[in-house]
Amino acid sequence: MKKLKKHNPSRIAAGSTRKSVKRYGALFLLPTVLAFIIGFVWPFVWGIYLSFFRFRTLRFTSFTGLDNYKSALSDSAFFRSLGFTSAFTVVSVLVINLVAFFIAYALTRGIRGEGGFRTIFFMPNLIGGIVLGYIWKIILDAVIIEYLGSALALNATYGFWGLVLLVSWQQIGYMMIIYVAGLQNIPGEYVEAARIDGASSWQLLRHITLPSIMPSVTICTFLSLTNGFKLFDQNLALTDGKPFRETEMVALNIYKSFYESTTNMGVGQAKAVIFFIIVVVIALSQLYFTRRKEVQA
Amino acid sequence: MKKFLSIVLALLTLCLLFSGCGGKKDDTGSVYYLNFKPEQDEAWKKLASAYTEETGVEVKVVTAAEGKYEETLTAEIDKSSAPTLFQISGQIALDSWKDYCLDLKDTDVYRELTSDDFAIKDGDAVYGIAYVYEGYGLIVNKKLLEKAGYKVEDITSFAKLREVAESITARKAELGFSAFTSAGLASSSSWRFSGHLANMPLFYEFEADGIKEQPATIKGTYLDNFKALWDLYINNSTIDPATLTSEQNDAAVEFKNGKAVFYQNGTWEYGNIASIGDENIGYLPIYTGVRDEKQGLCCGTENYWAVNKTASEADINATLDFLKWVVTSEKGTKALAEDMGFVSPFKSAKPVDNVLCNIMNDYVEEGRYNVSWAFNHTPNVETWRNGVVSALAAYSAGTGDWEAVKKAFIDGWAEQYKISHQ
């Protein structure tokens, strides 16, 4: 036995690696753990702590208990922004995922120039939100002013659909790539077997394709849902909440109550904590429900 | 080799650690100025390096992006190397920054001020010192006005201004220009109206009611005058009132290219419009019909220096020495007046090469009354102004009514006062 071990270099290597990992593992983890603490844990704890204080800067703070939360919950603009954000998220999740799926479906049929099309559809995602928002503002305003006699800053309905259009344009390409990957991973035997059994293309889509790409659906709905809820740059650049804060989404509302307050930034902080809880609850329940629909390929 | 590498890396880490902590001479102190005006960024940096050359004291100048000063200051002031010199925009800003403002009562720079009107005081203490004095009104293209058959001197009241504007509009096609430049309500221009024009009704109301401090509510006594002015602006302008919110409007360019006679803006705008020629530039008060006789421009400031109380004593002293040098030395006063174009309220200030400033001073010498900057009292100023801008935009486009503007003006004030004082 001893002899065998000596003559098996790979086992020796594996054994010593395991030992090294045991000995030095913590050391190698340290940078990541440190970065995680500095970049996430510490600000997170500090942020929750600060939401109980009245402050303008971090040097001078005074404890006010739940006052910030009371102010936040009595702010009608905050609730209006929550409503607007929810409506926007529902619409954008549906639009983005439906369109992205069908583009992905079309681009896995083997038509000519698929790669080129995928690249083109993906490209808007590479542009930053502020730039995108500003450009779309100019384009949409030109159209709305010319043909509809209004403007983005004057009409919340146009603002809403403008945002949907902008975000769809930006994110459909990204979700499409995920769906394309999912579609390509469907084993050919399934499709072939279904065809031989005489499934129509609708049945094929409904009973073979969709169940097989549920993992992609989970990821895409998760991403578009959280992106929709946390949307900020595009909102700031496209409408800036105009008119009358009617198109203000939650992130922008928090930003404004934080930075536009001349006396107490704690209210913005409290709103951020409330918002965090809402996003976590929604994202986790979405994951739970779509995960249940996933099947093992 | 490995050992050598690890030693080098270890040494490097140590160096980084130490250079992060030490390396600063604490005996002389240094200055860190967080500048507000992006237009003067270059000039401040030049002046700072001139001072360093002369005295050896390090002066760092950082300029916040336009409209982002409060955010930048909030972030910077908590750092261990915080700004030693920053700016506050008026009495209201003292609510936010009082904990950081050094009392400047016994400093040389305060003694150099020509009048206490230019200081932010709280009781005996002096927390802010104005470094630039500005005035806004209606900038006039005299050449175009003469083409339309009028002279600047003719316009002495709101009624007359309206007559001239409407007569120009009636002959717009024939003349080839409009009365007013676009009253743009995109964020790059909306402050001219939600801030500067809105100051007119605020000023007269506060004057009539004897208000000296920020009121919890306002009545909007002179909002009808404000409406008349606004109507005049948008109905005699280069553009359709429905398109005010578009990002494309650029009033300065329209004015420079001779597309309009009147352009509401201030002395700071001189550089942008100087190309029409000094002899063609006129400057009128914004007449409202309330008290047009003897009315002057709207002069004031929202730029006050404040010194960071929480900085080290050496840094505070270095900052005060720097300020004294800026407002008294040949190089400093010259830079303020010539490179930055500031009319500054200091005893040894130099004259400025700016026609708008010269006309502004003429009005003061004529004994006309100053329309001071009542908007400095606005609570949560950004939020309040956004409300007014939205209402003005809807009213102008015909999708909203004037009641909404009144509501944004009066109720918005009360609401923001409550929020900022809770």
What does the model show?
The complex is a heterodimer of chains A (297) and B (422). Chain A has 297 residues and is mostly helical. Chain A folds into 2 domains: 49 residues, no CATH class; 224 residues, MetI-like (MetI-like fold, Orthogonal Bundle), CATH 1.10.3720.10. Chain A has 13 helices and 2 strands. In chain A, a hairpin with a 5-residue loop joins strand 1 and strand 2. In chain A, helix 4 packs parallel to helix 7. Chain A is globular. With 422 residues, chain B is α+β, with helices and mostly antiparallel strands. Chain B folds into 2 domains: 150 residues, Periplasmic binding protein-like II (D-Maltodextrin-Binding Protein, domain 2, 3-Layer(aba) Sandwich); 219 residues, Periplasmic binding protein-like II (D-Maltodextrin-Binding Protein, domain 2). In chain B, helix 17 runs antiparallel to helix 18. About 2% of the residues of chain B have low confidence. The interface between A and B is large, with 32 and 41 residues.
